[in-house]
From TrEMBL:
The lineage of its organism: Bacteria, Bacillati, Actinomycetota, Actinomycetes, Micromonosporales. One of its GO terms (molecular function) is glycosyltransferase activity. This is Membrane protein. One of its GO terms (cellular component) is membrane. InterPro entries: MptA/B-like.
Length: 481
């Protein structure tokens, strides 16, 4: 435990950092009136206003301060490695996190403009239009100018649960009311996560404060869940709820409540899939945890998903809309980065026509690697199906692989797998890498939503490719004499 004076300094640093991030949101964030720094991408720092530069400074100081305070808090009780057992520290940790985050609740979004797209997609459904066939501009959403222009004519790739929820909360009146509704929805998701993490963490051998520290207090959660309002927070909450209910069901042998827990697990994971299709990878692990009650979870899940699809009146139109999600080419996805690097080499060699093919091949190899890794981990989970921690860890790492090996990776994609592994990963070294990864992801976007990968395409592509080569070489087994 930190000395009392040091603890007060750490908590105060986090509070000041939250205020700085809120100031950054007001000066250089994803403002509803438009991008406060539209010239940054092409003209650099000399093409933006002094207020934007001040906001950017607040962003850097706030992120640095939050990260330092969060790390010091983790080291105080060994929460980084998952070893904290201090009585009452879990609730104290949540209170500290709430104090740090409070300023963000009354500030504009940071790091992304996706919240405006969510609001427009909900508006389309409430207006009787199909968000799976129309972009927000095509449907005449009154808030279209707040949405990044690249998404104006792109149908929503999110499932019926996301559409129904956003349509409900965006009926509160105007764009600010819609943002308030989305913030309430995010807070509800984080509250559900706080309720369902403890039993899952205890079943996996991780201290509850350590799970809270890695899942709820990270800079990534502050920026991309609480501030930017990404629906990945809801995916995280529903996925953890499904795994927790599955653990409860397997622990109540012969009790009637076990069947209800199994059905709840199926419905929860179906809800996660109904927000984002990538949550499908968690389904087999939930069924493995349920054991002989797997069929109850499967039936409940199919019934819940079918019911929501019928209630939305949109069917499976969102499946076709998924095709638009891979249009952007950014090095934040490792397979795409490798394809980009090879493409740059081809371009230097005068074979510019091969660039797109190189990216396509890189992405295809990434999907093949994901399939192989997923089968490997599922087989491992099945062999160790009596070990709760082993199954949940396998689920979390497959979710990580799904995010990183897909054609496109955005930092908020890490929210759901990080929440699962926060409760299940017991390896100190792996937990440290997860913590470092959470910080790195939080820094992949600027406060106005402009992605760092957009500004550093060639440099980032070669850096990621070289890092992958080095990692592959270092991981090779060494010959013994």
């Amino acid at each position: 435990m930190l000395p009392h004076a040091a603890a007060r300094v750490t908590v105060a640093l986090g509070c000041v950092s939250g205020v700085l991030l809120a100031a950054a949101a007001c000066l250089a964030g994803a403002l509803p009136g438009g991008d406060p720094g539209p010239g940054l991408r092409l003209g650099g720092f000399g093409a933006v206003s002094a207020s934007f530069l001040l906001g950017l400074a607040c962003w850097l100081l706030g992120m640095a301060g939050w990260t330092l305070a969060w790390w010091r808090l983790g080291r105080a009780e060994d929460m980084i490695t998952g070893g904290s057992v201090r009585t009452g520290s879990a609730w104290r940790l949540l209170a500290i996190g709430a104090a740090w985050a409070a300023p963000l609740l009354v500030a504009p979004p940071l790091g992304s403009r996706d919240a405006y797209a969510y609001a427009c997609q909900g508006w389309l459904w409430r207006a009787g239009l199909d968000p799976y066939t129309l972009g927000v501009a095509d449907g005449g959403c009154p808030w279209t100018t707040a949405v990044p222009e690249i998404w104006w004519h792109t149908p929503t790739p999110y499932g019926p649960v996301a559409v129904l929820l956003t349509s409900a909360v965006t009926g509160l009146g105007g764009l600010l009311g819609a943002l308030a509704g989305l913030r309430l929805l995010t807070l509800a998701a984080l509250a559900l996560l706080a309720l369902t993490l403890p039993p899952l963490a205890r079943a996996c051998g991780v201290a509850v404060p350590a799970a809270y520290w890695l899942a709820l207090l990270t800079p990534l959660t502050a920026v991309h869940a609480l501030s930017a309002l990404h629906n990945d927070a809801l995916v995280a909450a529903l996925a953890v709820a499904a795994l927790t209910l599955a653990v409860i069901a397997r622990g109540r042998a012969g009790q009637a409540g076990a069947w209800w827990a199994a059905a709840g697990a199926g419905a929860a994971v179906a809800g996660a899939v109904g927000v984002k299709v990538t949550a499908l990878v968690a389904v087999p692990f939930v069924l493995v945890l349920l054991g002989r009650r797997w069929w109850a979870g499967a039936v409940a899940g199919v019934a819940a998903f079918a019911g929501v699809s019928a209630a939305s009146g949109l069917g499976l139109g969102w499946v076709a809309a998924l095709r638009g999600t891979g249009e952007l080419v950014q090095w934040s996805s490792p397979p795409t980065a490798v394809g980009m690097a090879v493409g740059y080499v081809f371009r230097l060699a005068g074979q510019g026509g091969w660039v797109d093919g190189a990216v396509a091949v890189g992405r295809a190899l990434g999907l093949l690697a994901l399939a192989g890794f997923g089968v490997w981990e599922l087989a491992h989970a099945w062999r160790h199906r009596d070990e709760t921690g082993a199954v949940v860890r396998a689920c979390g790492w497959v979710m990580i692989a799904t995010a990183l090996l897909g054609p496109v990776f955005y930092p908020w994609y890490a929210l759901a797998p990080l929440a699962v592994l926060a409760a299940a990963e017991t390896g100190p070294r792996r937990r440290r890498w997860l913590a470092v990864g959470a910080v790195a992801c939080a820094l992949l976007t600027l406060p106005n939503g402009l992605g760092v990968p957009v500004l550093t395409k060639a440099v980032g592509a070669f850096a990621v490719t070289i890092a992958l080569i080095v990692a592959a070489v270092r991981s090779r087994p060494r010959a013994t004499a």
